[in-house]
Specification:
By secondary structure, the protein is an alpha+beta fold. The chain has one domain (9-372): Cytochrome-c3 Hydrogenase, chain B, CATH 1.10.645.10. It is 48% helix and 13% strand. It contains 16 helices and 8 strands. It has helices spanning 17-20, 49-53, 62-66, 73-88, 94-123, 127-147, 169-192, 195-201, 209-214, 220-223, 231-234, 260-284, 337-342, 345-349, 354-364, 368-372, and strands spanning 9-13, 25-31, 34-41, 156-157, 160-161, 304-312, 315-323, 329-335. A 3-stranded antiparallel β-sheet has the order 1-2-3. A 3-stranded antiparallel β-sheet has the order 6-7-8. Helix 5 runs antiparallel to helix 15 and helix 7 (169-192) runs antiparallel to helix 12. It is globular, with a radius of gyration of 21 Å.
């Protein structure tokens, strides 16, 4: 019996914001409902971050860094500050280091809540989205009280912070952690272990560990494939080596190691680990200290170059900075984790259905502001 051959078609998915987690176009080659090839087409949100940085002084770059991964601005700022401080040889006060870690971990939780809530929408569940955003709002309130902003903060400066914490900051943060922990269980009961959600995500978009490594993925996308790699443990920066927490990796609990469910669950359990770090940082943080004590009046690094990397909610964020000894960097090159993670999409999508492609893309948790820069 002769094999039935059908014509392939090329279909554009996007660019449209609700469908593709940002202004992204996916160029699909389809055989009916089966995806033969996927080509991500980017550049719709390009804002020339790296070129802008060459015309800015080192402190002026911070607000631009905010606008890369705008769901994790605190983490972006921390990565940039660490790079410039190493280049300049600036020693940051103890109190500043603890506040930075607390803010970065709160922002990690807030970012994961967006990822998990919108992922429920991708799979057809609306209610978890509301639950996640209720909890995220509490974190944004803490940020707003501390520095006056809810999304783009300009809070972590080179050498310090823009504002000291409020007198009741510790109480507010610990109250959030206390209330939030049971909410993780609620999310699991509502979505994570929902039969329909598991069927939509388990064994879908499998990314084997060796492929994940070779594709340059990082963060939950890499750890979802069972690879135990987290810069907070493997290449500690700031004061992360002082805290006791686990690196969460995928284990194929509901299907195959490296499937969409594993990538989703890594983010769920990472929120619990962030709560542990926050509690330890609150307990250890010194009461006294001027958060602007080490902020240079004029940042003029010596001639040289530096590459520093930190662990954001999406993975390894790196900044490569070249200095010619003036107030302005010659080059600020950003290594965006979402950019590298997106490159693995064609590898994990070949042969899937169109409906599964939306779920696979959502499991990577991309932010186009960071990909396009």
């Amino acid at each position: 019996m002769a094999e039935l051959k059908t014509e392939t078609i090329t279909l554009n998915m996007g660019p449209q914001h609700p469908s593709t987690h940002g202004v992204l176009r996916l160029e699909l080659v389809l055989d009916g409902e089966i995806v033969l090839e996927v080509k991500p087409v980017i550049g719709y949100l390009h804002r020339c971050f790296e070129k802008h940085a060459e015309a800015m002084t080192y402190p002026q770059v911070v607000p631009y860094v905010d606008r890369m991964d705008y769901l994790a601005s605190m983490n972006n700022e921390l990565g940039y500050a660490v790079a410039v401080e190493r280049l300049c040889g600036v020693k940051v006060p103890e109190k500043v280091e603890y506040i930075r870690v607390i803010m970065a971990e709160l922002n990690r939780i807030a970012s994961h809540l967006v990822a998990l809530g919108t992922y429920g929408l991708d799979a057809g569940a609306f209610t978890p989205f509301l639950y996640c955003f209720i909890d995220r709002e509490k974190i944004l309130e803490i940020f707003e009280i501390t520095c006056g902003a809810r999304l783009l903060y300009n809070y972590i400066w080179v050498g310090g912070l823009s504002h000291d914490i409020t007198p009741n900051f510790k109480e507010k943060v610990l109250e959030f952690v206390k209330v939030f922990r049971p909410r993780i269980k609620e999310l699991n009961d509502l979505l994570s272990f929902n039969k329909i959600f598991i069927e939509r995500t388990a064994n879908v978009g499998v990314l084997p560990p060796e492929v994940a490594i070779n594709a340059g993925t990082s963060g939950p996308t890499l750890r979802g494939s069972g690879v135990n790699f987290d810069l907070r443990k493997n290449d500690p920066y700031s004061i992360y080596d002082r805290f006791d927490f686990k690196v969460i990796v995928g284990n194929g609990e509901m299907g195959t190691v490296g499937d969409s469910w594993d990538r989703y669950m890594v983010r769920v359990w990472e929120m619990e680990e962030s709560c542990k770090i926050i509690e330890q940082a609150i307990e250890q943080m010194p009461a006294e200290g001027n958060v602007q004590e080490a902020v240079p009046k004029r940042i003029k690094p010596p001639v040289g170059e530096i590459y520093a990397r930190t662990e954001t909610p999406r993975g390894e964020l790196g900044f490569y900075i070249i200095s010619d000894g003036t107030n302005y960097p010659i080059r600020v090159k950003a290594r965006g984790p979402a950019f590298c993670n997106l490159s693995a999409l064609p590898l994990m999508s070949k042969g899937c259905m169109i409906a599964d492609l939306v779920v696979i893309l959502g499991s990577i948790d991309i932010v186009l502001g960071e990909i396009d820069r």
